[in-house]
Design brief:
With about 450 residues, the chain is of the alpha/beta class. It is about 50% helix and about 15% strand. It is built from ten helices and eleven strands. The strands form three sheets. The chain has a six-stranded mixed β-sheet, sandwiched between helices. Strand 1 and strand 2 form a beta hairpin. Helix 8 crosses helix 9. The longest helix is centred in the last third of the chain and has 111 residues. It is elongated. Bound molecules: guanosine-5'-triphosphate (GTP) and magnesium ion. Magnesium ion (MG) binds next to helix 3.
């Protein structure tokens, strides 16, 4: 039971209906809102000021990603844009892949504080095989979205003090070749366009002639369109900036020149690049589009870039991620599906899967045991057979040996008999021999006496 305001009145209706009923009442209430005129100053016209004060107090954050080949003037342009020198160690460009380097700075202009992150894609375009060059950039952008999503999903959220590291603008530096975009540029921009606001810029525009530059710009834009690459369009829905933004959209990609060097021109110090044949003034709109870029990126559309990041790119990431996790807003019949219902459905699905898995594992276990049992039985049977075979072999061998022993015993006995008979014969022969000798001796003696 909760109180619900009745349409067009200040009374509250106590109802025991469902949330749906409450939503319906609220809808009717907003439809039936009455326009009243105030008879005196109330004060809620200070809301915009309150908002501004709160925002100024909190400070702002803005994160820029610079993508472009080595030495295209990324660091110089950042220094020129923010009128400062962002110190940073020069990156080594002999790495096997692209790596992301993020530097955080705190800037202040009047009473407005800005937390600025400048993210660089170090080593971009340095490798022989550039197929994977976009990967680490995409992974970095996703990781920032993921960190924000995790913070959002926490029970105890601290989003007001959370350091938002999502990339608000990607300055894509195009080499001033005067020909066309490189395939590396097209592939990278295509991979990034659904994740970040891409602002393409022609770097070192002082190295390309005026006529060539116009043709180059047209060529780049037609290549982006024919390859379906979505770049950031300066918004034209807010009438205060619609005209300037509309004009600037036609100037894309901006051809920029960067320099931190100040040169005296006339009686003014200006940022410029000096050459033997003349001077390129960075902030001179006849020389390059630096002022247009600064105007669009910082002075007019910084808040829109932040909003687009949250409402478009992060929203897309969040939606895909939550859908991947199984969350949905409507059921198969297109009826609203609450988080609670999703949780219950997921829980039941999970429990069902768990039970199924358990049953499968149990059956697998029983099958394995049966298999093992029959394997063991087979092995046992084989062992028995082997034992029987060996036993029979042993018995045969034993019988053979016994037969052999018997025949040998017989032979020994026969030999012994033969030996005894022979010895007997021999002794008899010896006896008769000695009798005959005695007889002959006697006869010889007798004949001698005669
Ligand atoms: P890595 O960080 O090493 O990739 O280089 P980077 O893209 O940051 O380039 P960096 O700003 O260090 O500039 C490289 C060289 O280009 C320096 O000598 C700059 O003076 C020069 N340079 C920068 N901007 C411009 C420009 O607009 N025109 C010309 N002609 N040279 C520039
Ligand atoms: Mg640099």
């Amino acid at each position: 039971m909760y109180p619900v305001p009745v349409a067009g009145s200040c009374e509250f209706l106590v109802t025991s209906g469902s949330t749906m009923a409450a939503v319906e009442v609220a809808r009717q209430m907003s439809e039936g809102a009455r326009n009243l005129s105030l008879s005196g100053h109330v004060g809620f016209d200070s809301m915009p000021d309150q908002l501004v004060n709160k925002s100024v107090c909190q400070g702002f954050c803005f994160n820029i990603l610079c993508v472009g080949e080595t030495g295209l003037g990324k660091s110089t342009l950042m220094d020129t844009l923010f009128n400062t020198r962002f110190e940073g160690d020069p990156a080594a460009h002999n790495q096997p892949g692209v790596h992301i380097k993020s530097n955080n700075y705190e800037l202040q202009e009047s009473n407005v504080r800005l937390k600025l992150s400048i993210v660089n894609s170090v080593g971009f375009g340095d490798q022989i095989n550039k197929e994977e060059s976009y990967k680490s950039i995409v992974e970095f952008i996703d990781a920032q979205f993921e960190a924000y999503l995790q913070e959002e999903l926490k029970i105890k959220r601290t989003l007001h003090s959370y350091h938002d590291s999502r990339i608000h603008a990607c300055l894509y530096f195009i080499a001033p070749t005067g020909h066309s975009l490189k395939s590396l540029d097209l592939v990278t921009m295509k991979k990034l366009d659904s994740k970040v606001n891409i602002i393409p810029i022609i770097a070192k525009a002082d190295s390309i002639s005026k006529n060539e530059l116009q043709k180059f710009k047209i060529k780049i834009m037609s290549e982006l369109v024919s390859n379906g690459v979505q770049i950031y369009q300066f918004p034209t829905d807010d009438e205060t900036v619609a005209e300037i933004n509309g004009t600037m959209n036609a100037h894309l990609p901006f051809a920029v020149v960067g320099s931190t060097e100040e040169i005296k021109i006339g009686n003014k110090m200006m940022k410029a690049r000096q050459y033997p044949w003349g001077t390129v003034q960075v902030e001179n709109e006849n020389h390059c589009d630096f002022v247009k870029l600064r105007e669009m990126l910082i002075r007019v559309n910084m808040e829109d870039l932040r909003e687009q990041t949250h409402a478009r790119h992060y929203e897309l990431y969040r939606r895909c991620k939550l859908e991947e996790m199984g969350f949905k807003d409507t059921d198969p019949d297109n009826k609203p599906f609450s988080l609670q219902e999703t949780y219950e459905a997921k829980r039941n699905e999970f429990l069902g899967e768990l039970q199924k898995k358990e049953e499968e594992m149990r059956q697998m276990f029983v099958m394995r045991v049966k298999e093992k049992e029959s394997e063991l039985k087979e092995a046992e049977k084989e062992l028995h057979d082997k034992f029987d075979r060996l036993k029979k072999l042993h018995q045969d061998e034993k019988k053979k040996l016994e037969d052999k022993k018997k025949s040998l015993d017989d032979e020994i006995n026969a030999f012994k008999q033969r030996k005894t008979a022979a010895e007997l014969l021999q002794s008899q022969a010896q006896q008769s021999g000695s009798q005959q000798t005695l007889k002959r001796e006697k006869e010889r003696k007798n004949s001698g006496f005669l």
